[in-house]
Design goal:
Elements: E1 3-15, H1 21-32, E2 35-40, E3 43-57, E4 61-65, H2 72-80, E5 87-93, E6 96-99, H3 112-122, H4 127-141, H5 156-167, E7 174-178, H6 186-202, E8 205-209, H7 213-219, E9 222-227, E10 230-234
Helix pairs in contact: 3-4, 3-5, 4-5
Length: 239
């Protein structure tokens, strides 16, 4: 049974060389939404999530709302295991896939084919699994012989096609998505939307961070609001 649970999870990280206290304090609060907990030798510790608890089970579709820096991306990365909490526990049952940063691991000097293999393995596939997934990814990109060329020669639209195709080529139990709808040209947006909707329908748990409330209401049935690292569940009418 797919499951994702946070029990009083707190995530902190240091900010180094922050000399000008009044200005840096202001900038840290704006950029992270967290709270400065302590200072020592020019190092400040920012609490990005504080005492966050919830439980997600099979069938949950959750939308994350909050201002920039409220903690949405930190929460997604903690769900994925990218960030480790300093307190509390995270329990996961099921395979997790993330669409957080399109193109993570892409190398412009490598060909499209080489980047497909490279990024696929960074997503957790073995070399054999990456090779097996290649034909489907190749077909979705519609890049043809351009996949033999270095990615640095691609247009931005071609690069987006390649990145999105790899990022959405997995079959996870839990899907974590951070605001990627609307990338590319109109034709690609339609193609990407259909692919993403099929992926969302196939997973056990879906978590989606976005500022577009109509999309959140379209894809999600539960809603979490983050504010300065704290979390509260809200109704659709309150997002």
């Amino acid at each position: 049974m797919t499951r994702l649970m946070f029990d009083t999870v707190t995530v902190q990280y240091p900010v180094f060389n922050s000399r000008n206290k009044s200005l840096r304090n202001h900038l840290v609060r704006l950029s992270t939404g967290g709270l400065i907990e302590q200072e020592s030798a020019g190092v400040r510790v920012v609490t990005a999530l504080r005492d966050v608890s919830f439980e997600l089970r099979e069938g949950d579709r959750v939308g994350l709302v909050g201002h920039n820096g409220a903690g949405k991306s930190t929460l997604l990365r903690t769900m994925a295991g990218i960030y480790a909490p300093v307190a509390g526990t995270v329990a996961r049952t099921g395979r997790i896939a993330t669409v957080l940063e399109l193109g993570a691991g892409m190398d412009g000097e490598l060909s499209g084919y080489e980047n497909i293999r490279r990024m696929s393995m960074l997503l957790g596939r073995t070399a054999a699994e990456a090779q097996e997934a290649l034909p489907e990814i190749e077909a979705f990109t519609q890049l043809g012989h351009f996949l033999d060329l270095p990615v640095r020669t691609y247009s931005s639209g071609m690069t987006t096609r390649l990145m999105f195709a790899v990022a959405t080529s997995t079959s996870p139990d839990i899907l974590l998505l951070d605001e990627v709808f609307g990338a590319g040209d109109a034709e690609f947006q339609q193609q990407a939307r259909e692919r993403m909707e099929a992926l969302i329908a196939s997973v056990g748990i879906f978590v989606f961070a976005s500022h577009e409330h109509d999309k959140l209401k379209r894809y999600c049935g539960r809603f979490f609001r983050l504010e300065h690292g704290t979390l509260a569940e809200v109704s659709a009418g309150d997002i």
